[in-house]
Specification:
binds phosphoenolpyruvate
Length: 258
């Protein structure tokens, strides 16, 4: 982290977990134990049907609510889809885009790019995910793969909007597996992502953009991961479903930075 130049962001990704009633219960618990210090931004990205309950519960708090996906089209015949302006109207601040679980369902880099552009246009903060498979890591092509995902995902994002984008590095082999990247492995890729952004935009923009790590981050390993200079927060799946664990990760973001 480097709080001098950029925001630290702790974001939860609930995936397909919790009902609206469970959401209300979770938020009530979270509110009672939420740390008072504001050393990081906190986001919770929840299933679409849980957004109203989450927004209502967290209205007077510092926790921003987000969605887990969006459709890039403004409206129309897209049964089952949700447009970015609907998310804004529902009270969302963030939207996760290009999670590997969605890419596995067929989402392409072009889809990710269209969603990033639509989210920015609507005023949402896109949390754009990238990450390599174990096979790609073992073949030594992680850097090239990630650079390609970043370049394609950010295509057409204007200079004045790049700082709004949050990038989440999520090695696929570490998601939901309990197998976390070492702080050094995660730092190496996050540093490379910043270099790609520097080449696409500028040093100032690269220095200002928040890059998160995701992949089995939990209350035990968060401190060490967040101590890395280019890891500006976490995108947290499993551990974001338990208020006490999520709060411990938020607390781990309260440490001296470079
Ligand atoms: C995720 O879903 O983005 C994620 C990182 O999950 P987990 O923390 O459970 O590995």
């Amino acid at each position: 982290m480097n709080r001098k130049y950029r925001k630290t962001v702790i974001a939860g990704n609930w995936k397909m977990n919790k009902t609206p009633s469970e959401t209300k219960e979770f938020m009530t618990q979270l509110k009672t134990i939420m740390p008072r210090g504001r050393w990081c931004d906190v986001a919770l990205c929840v299933p679409a049907v849980c957004i109203p309950a989450a927004v209502r519960a967290m209205r007077e708090t510092r926790v921003g609510i987000g969605a887990e996906n969006c459709n890039p089209n403004p409206s129309g015949a897209y049964t089952g889809e949700i447009a970015t302006n609907m998310l804004v109207d529902a009270g969302c601040k963030y939207v996760i885009i290009g999670h590997s679980e969605r890419r596995a369902m067929g989402e392409t880099d072009a889809d990710v790019n269209a969603k990033v552009l639509a989210a920015l246009e609507a005023g949402l903060v896109p949390i754009m995910c990238c990450g390599e498979t174990l096979e790609q890591r073992e073949a030594g092509i992680t850097d090239e793969w990630i650079a390609m995902q970043i370049k394609l995902g950010l295509k057409g994002v204007p200079e004045e909007k790049i700082r709004k984008v949050i990038i989440a590095y999520e090695p696929i082999w570490a998601i939901g597996t309990g197998r976390t990247a070492t702080p050094e492995q995660a730092e190496e890729v996050c540093e490379n992502i910043r270099t790609v952004v520097r080449k696409l935009y500028s040093s100032k923009n690269a220095r200002a953009i928040s890059i998160l790590y995701g992949g089995s981050m939990n209350e035990k390993n968060a401190f060490e991961l967040l101590a890395q200079p280019d890891i500006d927060g976490g995108l947290i799946g499993g551990a974001s479903l338990v208020p006490e664990k999520f709060v411990k990760i938020i607390e781990a973001a309260n440490q001296p930075t470079v």
